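Obj: model holo form, ligand = magnesium ion.
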Amino acid sequence: MERVPTGIEGLDELLGGGFPKGRIILVSGGPGTGKTVFAMQYLYRGVVDYGESGVFVTLDEPVERLDENMASFGIDLPKLREEGKLSIVALNPIQFVTIRPGGLIHIIREAVKPNVKRLAIDPLTTMLLQEKDPYQQRLDIMRLFSTLSELGCTVVVTSEAKHATLTRTFHVEEFLADGVIILHKVILKSKVIQALQIEKMRGVTYDGQLRPYQITTEKGIVVYPKERIIELE
Ligand SMILES: Nc1ncnc2c1ncn2[C@@H]1O[C@H](COP(=O)(O)OP(=O)(O)OP(=O)(O)O)[C@@H](O)[C@H]1O
Ligand SMILES: [Mg+2]
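Output (holo structure tokens):
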């Protein structure tokens, strides 16, 4: 299986080299766990370290806000856009209501040119909220994922987890994605510790233990692949 290095420090070691190429990876976590930073960092490292173009589809934050947030990590998104290396498709939830999942699929198809290797959609949850019927929701996700698979990109899709703790319910999108990474917040002796867990990654062997991570200004998300979270109570 060919691999796509994420460029996220420590994560590629857990993955045994990177994401399986051409697959759809879901990154799930509670508020502020770093889902957007993760998705953006994956695209950014793709451009800088591997010369791969990316497309970021945002379904919650406007472009200006993303530009500002990423600038705080030293990432110059407007420059990358000018150079044609990383484009952003921004749809707010109100626009989304009118286009429905079918419209989103169309927009993504248009935006992903043949040279694009990395795609991120953040967060998928906006799309799921529209559909109350679980069966229809599953069909919508299957339709979207099947289109994404045809694009030839390796895709990161984020989703908002309802439960921030380790005991949690599973979401339909987790069953349909090829890989799932969970960003947890763990309380350990009254301290909040952030931990990353690879829940599944079809077709490859990986380290599925909880590993601590931090969001740093210098490097964005950094995972500590050798450290353990102990005394979980
Ligand atoms: N410049 C920075 N340096 C270090 N950490 C930062 C910086 N900017 C943001 N952070 C951290 O990143 C977190 C936000 O990450 P991010 O926006 O990716 O979370 P999210 O999971 O997408 O949240 P949401 O569910 O609200 O969309 C903040 O809570 C903060 O801890
Ligand atoms: Mg976010």
